[in-house]
Amino acid sequence: MIGRLVVASLTGHRARTLLAVAGVAVSAALLLDMVMLSSGMRESFRSLLTSRGFDLRVAPKGTLPFDTEATIADATAAMAALRESPDIVAVAPVLGGTIHLPRAGGAAVSSVALGVDPRVQGDYVLLGGREPRDDEMVANDALLAAAARQVGDTLTIAGGYDPQLRRFLAPRVVRISGRVRFVYLARDQRAAAMPLAALQALGGPTRRDRVSLMMIRARPGADIEQVRAWIARRLPKVTAISTATAIAQVEERLSYFRQLAFILGSVSLAVGVLLVGTLVTVSVNERIGEFAVLRAIGIARRTITAQIMIEGAALMFAGAFLGLALGLVTARYLNTILASFPGLPQSIDFFLFQPRAAWTALGLLAAAGVAAGAWPAWRGASLPIARVLREEAA
Amino acid sequence: MSEPVLRLDSVERSYHMGSEEVRAVRGVSLEIGAGEYVAIVGPSGCGKSTLLNLLGAIDRPDRGHVYLDGRDVGALGDGEATALRLRRIGFVFQRFHLLAALSARENVELPMSEAGVGRTERAARARELLAYVGLAAREKHRPPQLSGGEQQRVAIARALANRPALVLADEPTGELDARTGSEIAALFRRLNDDGTTLVVVTHDEDLASAAKRTIHMRDGLVVRDELAASVAAAQR
Q1: Candidates B53, B100, B111; nearest CB to A386
Q2: Which of A56, A190, A199, A329 has a CB 3.0–4.6 Å from the CB of A115, allowing a cystine?
Q3: Overall pTM surpassing 0.80 (yes/no)
Q4: Which domains, and CATH codes, for chain B?
Q5: Which ipTM was obtained for this model?
Q6: CB distance B82–A295 less than 8 Å?
Q7: CB atoms within 10 A of CB A124
């Protein structure tokens, strides 16, 4: 019968109920988005860093991977040294650089270029064709479109440009062997990858036997911290950073987002509580006489309390479910806008839907709904019956 | 007189209206036996409704005692008083006070639901009671779809839902026209003839004349307590 009374009360004032549900839905959507934002980038970075199965990244001493132009010298010897460890099963060198694609008329297309060991690389996913051999490279869609080439075509690339002589340095012809998606680069960023030696040669003497980064895959079950410490001892001129440490650093840098999300989420929750609390209070005030009569005919306080609190919780739940749907739609839209921020890896999501986040938001809203109905419920159940009946009769 | 269902012992009750203290009931003592039909009459403001609230355990006396079935109502906690009202007392109000969103049958079922009566049993009893008050065909109608007299009949059926020892009615014909008021008076007579103990506060002479005993109040005091002539003659 309580359920019937709750439904009757809520459907008795349809416009008010719909407005309340809509208000809670907006509040819930914002709350969900904030919960998704607070964990989305962290999870997204975690997924990005762990997706290719590398456990450590080795960069020049005191730098983070690709944070500066610095490179590691004597790369061949360094890689050989790393392979001495029984805990290291793969070393993937990466050299970052820029290549130019001269075009008729003097203009050129520039592109990011990565020198890699195609057998163990972790920077791209092959979408078509095959891994590059000598005098070959793979390219992403942005570069293929800019160069108007496709897999199988050849093109001229250069490692530099001399503005005095107005000519490209060390131009060479390469064949495009495959179409790829780069894991750590933005979708619209033109990029190519080729064997490490080829890019080192294009860079001239300053790039000879140098790499920007080495990604390390450890033996399954190996203690990553011990491997990191071993590298630090074996190669004093590099810094090894574990994926876990990298994630922790990312988390630290993202603390601003989490604080923002926490504050906005709290505000939205408070707005929801105030909205539902106000509407339930108004509803109780309108029905003071009804509650007095119910109490007079023997309806217990707990029944009336339950009825009012269920009304509040029902408004919250209805709004919350609507809000979850609304939150997912707005999160997707906002993600599209934020993902177009220049330089962001295309697999990074600002708003990542996780069932736990949805349950957290729902749980918070349910608790808020109960809290919002508590005071009006207490008031409705505790009124002085005789006085209210006397005033109603007057 | 039969075994008392209700006994009042020097009961007093005051309340405040703004800054003014109203001494609504000033030392009333009386007994009401099982099966009686009592009308409480008197001018407005003489304390009739306050007395009815005290009889029905809705209110507590400032002084004195109200005993229902031998239990001191004033000494009961809120939960016990609520349970007493639910199971032992039926209320009928001047303005009917039905829940507009529920059907006639659901309104009658409400006290039974609170008392833990099963769905099937309470639906059957609600139908029985609606038939008793002449509204068998109106069980699915909601209060706004019923006339004043019909709503009061539903309220009477609701008051009878948990088979109370006592039915209290506060101006039950106050909102009705004379003809409908007479119908309600007839229904009360039938209720009492069937064994229900009734206490009715009223200004309605027809309704009062149907009672077997009339208690006259003035300024918070019982000034006259008399049996109907027919009852007195029968007792002689």
Answers
A1: B53
A2: A199
A3: no
A4: 34-58+73-235 (3.40.50.300)
A5: 0.92
A6: yes
A7: 25
